[in-house]
Task: structure prediction
Amino acid sequence: MIAVVDYGVNNLASVVRALAAAGHPATLTADPDVVRHADRVVLPGVGNYGRAAITLRVTGLGDAVREVAAAGKPLLGICLGQQLFFTGSEEAPGAAGLGLLPGRVVRFTTGLHVPHVGWSEVTPTPAGRSHGLTGPVLGDAGAYFYHVHSFHPADVPDECVLGTADYDGPFATIVGRDSIVGTQFHPEKSQDAGIGLMRRFAEWTP
Amino acid sequence: MLARRIIPCLDVADGRVVKGVHFEELRDAGDPVEQAARYDREGADELVFLDIAASYELRSTTLAMVSRVAERLFIPFTVGGGIRSVADAGAALRAGADKVAVNTAAVRDPDLVSRLADAYGTQCVVVAVDVRRQAGRYAVMVTGGREATPLEAIDWIRELENRGAGEILLTSMDRDGTRSGYDLELTRTAADAVDIPIIASGGAGSFAHLADAFEAGAHGVLAASIFHLDQQTIAAARAFLRERGVPVRP
Result:
C-alpha cells in the first residue's frame, strides 16, 4: 500500500490522482500508524516550511516518516515535502525539518523573477543516471517537469544530487539517498514525464 | 531554460465551451471536461478555464465543473470568472485549480491582488487584462469587455506586478476571435514593461501567430479557435514552434 501523507497542506488530491493514473491507487492518510505500516510513502506539499515542520512534529507524522526511511522503504518527497527532508530552510529559520538528507534549503538569489514557475528541463547527474528510480525516468537526455518554488536545496553532497535544472544557474531539483527521493518540481503536474516518475517510484526496489 | 507555454483556453458559459468574436456571437465548441482531457492527452502545457458568464459571482455550478475538469488534468490549471475575494479563490483552489484569474474584481479592488498573493503566493495569482485600442491608447475593459475604464493597460500591468500578480493574461479584444494574429505591439510593450510572464491572448489563427507572439516576448500563448474549431493538435503546434526556434517542450 502507498500512503500519501495528509498534513494539512494543499495539492494532495492531485498527487493521489497521478498515482492512480500511473496504475497505483494510493491512500491519503493523516494517521501516523497507517504511514508507518505502508509499503511506500509520499510526502507531498505546497505551503510554508515553518508551519509544515510544526504540523509534522505535533501530529507524530514526522516520526512515522522517519521510521519509514529508517526501514529502507521507498519514500518520495514532493516540493515542500522534499524540502522537509533537510534539516532546515531559509524560509523558516529555527524550524526543524526531518534531517533525512544532508544539505539545506535556500532562497533563489537571482535577478530573475522569483518564484521560478514553469516547465524546466531536468538533467540527470552521474548519480541520477545510474539511480534505479531516476535513471529510467530521465534517460540520458533528461525531461521537462513543472516547477513552482522560491526555495531550493543547496550544499547537497554530489552523490545525493540526482537531477539538476537551471534558473540563472544550476540547482538541485532531484535529491536522494538510499530509499529516499525528493523532487523540487511537481510530478503530479508534469503530465507523462511526471506520471512516469510516479509509476517508477511505485515499482522501484531501492 | 523555462519552456515557452502553449495554453488552450476553455471559455465556458452555461456548462459548455464557447468561442466568440470580439467577446460576442458565441458559438458552441464542446464539453469542457472532454476538451480538457483531450488537451492534457495532446500535451498542452497548461489549461485555462474562464467562466465568461459569471463576471459577478463564483457559482457552485462552476466549482462543480472545475472539479470535474481537474480530475482529468495532470498539468497546471487556472480558473477564472467571478472570483472576487480570497474566499472565492480558496474555493476554486480547493476544487482543483492551481491558479486563479481575476479581472473585473482587480480593477474594482486593486488590493485584492495583494491579498490573494499574501494568502496563496504570487504564483497562484493571474490577472486577466482585457484591452481595447481607443484613441491611441490601450484601454482596460471590464465586465467581459462591456465596460471601459480610465486605466491604461501598461500602467495597470506595472501596478499589478507591484501588487503581487504572478502573471498577466493579456487579451486584445480587437483581435479576439478574428484569427488575424495577436496584437504584437501590445504584447511587446507589456513584456518589456514588467518582469512577470505575459500570456498573449486574442487573435491566434495559425501556428505562425503563436511563434510571432513568442518572438514579441510572450512567455505563453493562449489559443482557443485553432484548437477547438480547427482540431489542430498541440503536438503539431509544438513541432512548428520548435522549427521556428521557440524553446518548447519536446
